[in-house]
Design a protein that fits this description.
- Helix content is 45%, strand content 11%.
- It contains ten helices and seven strands.
- The chain has helices at residues 18-33, 42-48, 54-65, 70-73, 77-101, 110-119, 132-143, 168-177, 191-199, 249-261; strands at residues 6-9, 123-128, 153-156, 184-188, 203-207, 222-224, 236-238.
- It has a seven-stranded mixed sheet with strand order 3-2-1-4-5-6-7, sandwiched between helices.
- Strand 2, helix 7 and strand 3 (153-156) form a beta-alpha-beta unit.
- Helix 1 packs across helix 5.
- It binds xylulose-1,5-bisphosphate and magnesium ion.
- Magnesium ion (MG) binds at residues 10, 12-14, 189-190, 193.
């Protein structure tokens, strides 16, 4: 079992609560652009989140909620793919505009932990199913203008054939960093994300949110309300942290050490 070398972060739901107020809103704006009356409510979006990836989510919605939509039902499989691709490109533009215009706050402890890792020479990476442009928008506007340079690898979207819950995106990030799973700690917020990091062999810390609090994280190394801050301790939902009030680099290293002994 290795020494801690890197932290690998999921983006949506982990760095910030992007789904309800940003991705969902952007999807609805894209639908309106092309004259569709589809409205993804907060509740419906919660159901749709079981499918990762925006294009895949739109397809799942059409198949399950709009099966007889004539303009879609008459299309060939190729045309449906092109229709979804166009809709999704509009959604990505809306998402990036939204994050540029109203800054979405990072979740508790995220900025502190990233800064601490940088100060201690711990390497940083991103592993997400979202589109690369969305990662740039969030990191640049919500973390720091030069934050893209802080991450050695940004593994995102269609860079791998299979999105989460498949482990491919984490394997991709590990390969690019030339690291083994036992040298890294991953941060996730969802059941799909946890399955992905687990199957990549990564020690995983889950920080839940409103959409994911009731999902199954059996086997995760730690399940927390959030990363916590010195004046705003986390709540531990599963796992053992002793007296640690908030998540820091030392606790990440401790989790790897514990695993090597088990
Ligand atoms: C995040 C997602 C993403 C976004 C949409 O999952 O599922 O698909 O909702 O992004 P995770 P795109 O946090 O597990 O990576 O529309 O750009 O695909
Ligand atoms: Mg996520």
């Amino acid at each position: 079992m290795g020494q801690l070398e890197a932290l690998i972060f999921d983006v949506d739901g982990t760095l910030a609560n992007t789904e309800k107020d940003a991705h969902r809103v952007a999807f609805n704006r894209a639908f309106a652009d092309v004259g569709l009356t589809w409205d993804w409510s907060v509740d419906l979006y919660g159901q749709l989140l079981k499918v990762t990836g925006g294009k895949e989510r739109i397809r799942f919605y059409i198949e399950s909620w709009q099966p007889q939509m004539p303009s879609v039902g008459d299309l060939t499989a190729f045309d449906l793919t092109a229709f979804i691709k166009d809709l999704h490109a509009r959604k990505t533009q809306h998402y990036c505009d939204l994050l540029a215009n109203e800054v979405l706050p990072l979740r508790p402890g995220v900025r502190r932990l990233i800064q601490e890792a940088r100060d201690q020479g711990i390497r940083l990476a991103i592993a997400t199913t979202t589109t690369p442009a969305n990662v740039t928008a969030l990191l640049t506007h919500s973390l720091a203008p030069d934050a893209m340079d802080w991450f050695e690898v940004i593994a995102a979207g269609d860079m791998v054939p299979q999105k989460k819950p498949a482990p491919d995106i984490f394997f991709y990030a590990l390969e690019k960093m030339n690291l083994r799973a036992d040298q890294c700690v991953a941060f996730e917020d969802s059941g799909n994300g946890w399955l992905s990091s687990r199957d990549a062999g990564l020690t995983t810390v889950v920080t839940v949110n409103n959409y994911t609090a009731n999902q199954d994280f059996t086997g995760a190394d730690l399940v927390l309300s959030d990363l916590g801050e010195p004046d705003q301790p986390f709540t531990v939902l599963a796992g053992e942290v002793g007296t640690w009030p908030y998540f820091d680099v030392t606790l990440a290293a401790e989790l790897l050490k514990r695993k090597s002994k088990s």
